[in-house]
Design brief:
141 residues, mainly alpha, Lysozyme, 2 domains, 6 helices, globular
Amino acid sequence: MKEINEANYWIKCDYSQPFGCPAGQSAYYGRGPIMFSWNFNYKAAGDALGLDLLNDPWMVERDPSVAWQTALWYWNTQNGPGTMTSHDAMVGGAGFGETIRSLNGSLECNGGNPGSVLARVAKYEHITDVVGVNPGSGLTC
């Protein structure tokens, strides 16, 4: 339910945002099914969902319903560092690789961390095999 590497917690506070980081510089680490992170994402998701996630980001790890709400909100509405939402990537035929780009951008794509990309693809292919569906094309970013 929360990001393992606590050494990275402090970097996910963008003080250039007008609302700052009222829960503290290290409060906006990754949580939930897609490792939802950054103060600006907590603010936008909280506004959309009617929750004060900017001041209480821990709600995402305390409440499984909130964790899934933020994940689905991001998946369906946010491009992140990509050019389309993860939902649009999957239903529009761009493929699984574009979901990686939308979630992690250059941290993983374009040579950022090819091992991580390959590990994600392997897990995705395993899941599609288990449920008996074709993984499609565009698996990497």
